[in-house]
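Q: I'm teaching a short session on how sequence maps to structure, and I want students to see two examples side by side rather than one. Could you give me a first protein with its sequence written out and its structure tokens following it? Keep the formatting plain so it prints cleanly on a handout.
A: Of course. Example one:
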Amino acid sequence: MEILVDAKEWEVLSSYAIIDYAVSNGFKSIIKINKTKSGNLYDKSSDGLLILTSEYGKENFHLTNKKNILTMAGMLAHFHNCTEGFIQPQGIKTKVYWGKRAEKYRMLTSKLEKFKSEIKDKENLTPFEEYVMPYIDELLVRAKNSQKVFKSKEYLKLLEESMKKREVCINSASSSTAVVRCGKPLIVKVFDMGYNLCIEDLALLIKHSIEDSKDKNVYKDILKRYRSIRKVDSNLDKIIKAYVSFPYYSLKTIKKYMECKKDDEFYIDKLKRAYSLEKISNIMEADNS
């Protein structure tokens, strides 16, 4: 079937190369990009790029139950094994994410500190600012605890090792990453793939699984399943927890509000949802008590 994709030409070429490498190493749970009638990997239309791929369903592979979560964990480990060592073909650009998420989190932490400074002595708070006040210190503690880990020697060493191994990630591990095909997950979100720390993918899966299933205990189950297929040193648990526990969506909502300073009720509602979910996925809590 032919589908319209939200991707640039070079992203299609890069994804095709990674998929081809993964499949050649035995990974099958991913869409393939086939050549079109014109002999290209995509056709252009007025709406964007069209790619040709096999038929697949539209039902997302949801991370709301343990069976699906563990299936996804195993598939992710297999993908990481099959893509490690990928060398981008000559003339093809591959996305590079090493260290970018940690830097994004650092910038969000700085934004929250700035927000706190702006409103701490303010006389007339907006409804959103008033709502956020009781949560600011807690969110800052969580964010800074993660930042300490991202500045550690262990994290920097992990980055270096990942670069040497040329690890490749999906850079997406949520209920929209894959669809159901024959009862199993098929990865369809492929245009963000690129070089990165594999444990970032793993941490994203853990975060989304905890928040979707409302079960903090799936953390250990996911690690056990992933480790049964791909080696992850036990001393990396602290780094994984730092990714999972960072209150990304809460801080992102506050940042968005700072940029517009309006639609208070909309942002209050958005922050309520983000905060309640990220309260569940704070798995560094036990370490900091």
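Q: Perfect. Now a second example for contrast.
A: Example two:
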Amino acid sequence: MKHPPGLGGILETPVYVDDMDAAHAFYEGVLGLKRMVKGERLFAYNAGPEQTLLVFHRGHTGEDVPTPGGLVPGHDTSGPSHFAFKIDAESLQPWRDYLAAVSVEIISEVVWPAGGTSLYFRDPDGNVLELASPPLWPNYTG
């Protein structure tokens, strides 16, 4: 086979945290994501159509996990990570206002050469989150 069969997109985005309660208060309470799964080592949030944000309890996911359907390989990370949410350009100012109102500091704002804008801020564990408006990447033009 010369070409892979194809991918349907990114299904899950992971982030690792030390404080699961603070993470839940932030991701559901501040960002408005609905928690779909609550476990000891992970929470899963609806991050959009067919998109899931997985919040893992750092240090508790390194071992393989047997399930009735098979083995989930262990994984973990250290230090802050980064991921981005898509927003419309018209939502930039409402997001600036909202984040200020809930005392979430925008640590950086970038206007990209393609014309899109990104707002960067941190979750309670120091992970860097981005709200990105198009156009940004060749495949994210709005």
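Q: What should students look for in example two?
A: Point them to this: The domain at 80-142 is CATH 3.10.180.10 (2,3-Dihydroxybiphenyl 1,2-Dioxygenase; domain 1). Also worth mentioning: Helices lie at 20-30, 92-101.
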